[in-house]
Amino acid sequence: MKGQHEAPVRCAVYPRTSTDEGLESDFNSLDAQRESGENYVASHRSEGWAVLPARYDDGGYSGATLDRPGLQRLLADIEAGSIDVVIVYKIDRLSRYLPDFAKLIEIFDRHHVSLVSVTESFDTSTPMGRLTLHMLLSFAQFEREVITERIRDKVAAAKRRGKYCGGAPVFGYDVDRERKRLVVNPKEAPLVPRIFADFIRTPSCTALAQKLTEEGYTTKSWTTKKGITRPGGHWNKGHIYRLLHNPLYIGEVLHKGQRYPGEHEPIVSRKLWDQAQAILHDQHRAPGLSTRAKTEALLRGILRCAHCGSAMGPTFTRRRGKVYRYYLCVHASKNGHDSCPTRCLSAGEIERTVMEQLRTVFRTPEIVAQTCREARAQVEQGAAQGEAFSEPDVVGALHSLDPIWERLFPQERERIVRLLVRRVDVYPDRAELQIRAEGLASLVTELGESTAEEEQAA
Question: Do 275 and 318 sit in the same domain of this protein?
Fold first, then answer.
């Protein structure tokens, strides 16, 4: 620990609790931890120690994450150089996760901040303190993992007995929190078998979701333990799909692929359930679905509908033995094609448009110069891989790519496009590209190395 100081040794006390239970009392666990830290600092007053007035309390926050408001304020003040020592009641108050704790210690060391545990009596500025610290933290992490395993085993045993184990209530049921079980919601329940029956007559989740929304039905509305209301909203095909697959409706509880008789009352007959599952099974086995992920999609993951702000994912249809590729707006897919003016695009057309724009962009001197400046800056700052290069390097590299583009494998074309393009926003009359300068740096380096290898081989 730091020795005698002319200036005060500025000490920050950091208290934390995992739950917010009891925090409303006049003297709670956070107060007790802070008082213990202040007493420890007082015992070192002769060494110039003084408690900072700022409070960094975290009540109701797990030690398994660093996303805590008090801790973030503490780190900000450490970065600002206004703290010399951090005082905790026990090490696990700071973190219960070894990698996170290592990150914190690295930050402390970088700013010459020491860590002191009141009850475990050690100081991280000494080798023995560091050894003790890592031993204690390893045991704290072991304890957390054991507790997690016990909870997991308890949940598994409860589900095998058909008990409700928490989570958001599903449509058609409410939660009796005193008895910890599901009870039928008399207002919502009659709609559930009707959804199954309507799906059996017209097996389209999208059409069924539109129908329910048009008739004024909303998804589940419920209130949390803390009194926060979660209002229902419009139905979409995802809601319908999950409802049709949920065995709770036939009185069963699902756990790790196994179903067990539940304590709650079923609201869908076995006959309706079996009919719906047969249709869903046939839809899942429809020709082409298993190979969808293998279909080429040059703009996979970067194409977005500017109207909805949603992603546009690849899909396809088969007609007379021929495959037709499209990009479909996710919002339109869930809520019906009428919900979005963009809806779907011919994959070939939008891909050609994007490639033409890319070629135009890299043939424009002003854009090449600007992109080069950005890429060089990122390389110099270490934010991108690659070596220093000039504008002629960029032009030459992209020109060398143009004639071999059609001979590249689909996966390689996708990789290069994702390297160069951050996203493509599609409007009814145009598409706008966002270029990745750091990707350009990597690509120029790759192409330069390939050219050098070819020249050596020749």
Answer: no
